[in-house]
Amino acid sequence: MIIDTHLHVVDPSALDYPWLAIVPALNQAWPYAAYELEARRAGIARTLHMEVDVAPERIEDETGYIGTLAARPDSLIAGAIASCRPEEAGFAAYLDQQRDNPLIKGFRRVLHVMPDDLPEQPLFRENIKRMTGSGLTFDLCMLPHQLPNAMALADLAPEVTFILDHCGVPDIKGDARQPWQDNITELAKRQNVIAKISGVVAYADGDSWVADTLRPWVEHTISSFGWDRVVWGSDWPVCTLGGGLLAWVAATHALLQGASAAEKQKLLSGNAQRIWNL
């Protein structure tokens, strides 16, 4: 069984996604039904929906929309990671509201397209610390040079579980090993950080990558964090920029060829079940 911890459903008829205008390859509808067919073919049994950086005024609308998809008979959606704005004063009330919603398993604030110093703002840091005891995780979508800020947040709130998206967004196509490699090693020393093995096909050369292209990046992440602190995600539909969901699942199995059955089970489903109580 595979649990996909990183699905994006895009429905421009229902929600607003301002950022799609600057990514023509993704600027279209990506409905749940299209994902579901490929996911079931790939052996994905459950998934977490990841917020899609909708317009700020539509954040709660996105949660409601995903709730309707999760409520469908035999839906793969077992929970959702909701968007949030820790830099705003309304976060405390929002946190209280969402912690009572059984659909919501965590939060994410997209940071890789924001100013580097956003996570350093006092209110942002205060609100991240507020998550202590909530049982909700916080996804970190950050560029390699921003990872010291991830370390600072993990140190600030040691009882909050942080999820590092996409192996730390490495530049695989450009073969930029540093500062990514050293920062991953250092971040992994924080026991409250989990690494998500996801998204990497979009950072390779979409026309020529093979499984071994991804191997150094995936293996360094797994060896740094260990098998008990890694989860798997598709990053659909962003993965279509690098061959698509089925290609990424096939590459994942190739990369795991030398792993034990227990290690594979932890990465592909077991750790996600434990972390999000699925």
What this model shows, in words?
Helix content is 36%, strand content 14%. The protein is an alpha/beta fold and 278 residues long. It has one domain (2-276): Alpha-Beta Barrel (TIM Barrel), CATH 3.20.20. Strands 1-2-3-4-5-6-7-8 form an eight-stranded parallel beta sheet. Strand 1, helix 1 and strand 2 (44-50) form a beta-alpha-beta unit. The chain is globular. 43% of the residues are buried.
Question: Topology of this protein?
Answer:
Elements: E1 2-7, H1 32-42, E2 44-50, H2 59-70, E3 77-83, H3 91-98, E4 104-108, H4 122-130, E5 137-140, H5 147-156, E6 162-164, H6 180-187, E7 193-197, H7 211-225, E8 230-232, H8 245-255, H9 261-276
Parallel strand pairs: 1-2, 2-3, 3-4, 4-5, 5-6, 6-7, 7-8
Order of helices and strands: EHEHEHEHEHEHEHEHH
Strand count, sense and barrel status of the largest sheet are: 8 strands, parallel
| Percent strand | 5-15%
What structural class is derived from the secondary structure elements?
alpha/beta
User: Count of DSSP helices?
Assistant: 9
Query: The CATH topology, please?
Result: TIM Barrel
CATH classification, class level: Alpha Beta
Distance between the termini: 13 Å
Counted beta strands: 8
The stretches of 5 or more residues where confidence is low (pLDDT under 50) are none
Quote the average pLDDT: 97
Full CATH superfamily name: Metal-dependent hydrolases
Quick description:
The protein is α/β, with parallel strands linked by helices and 278 residues long.
Keywords:
single chain; 278 residues; alpha/beta; TIM Barrel; 8-stranded parallel β-sheet; 8 strands
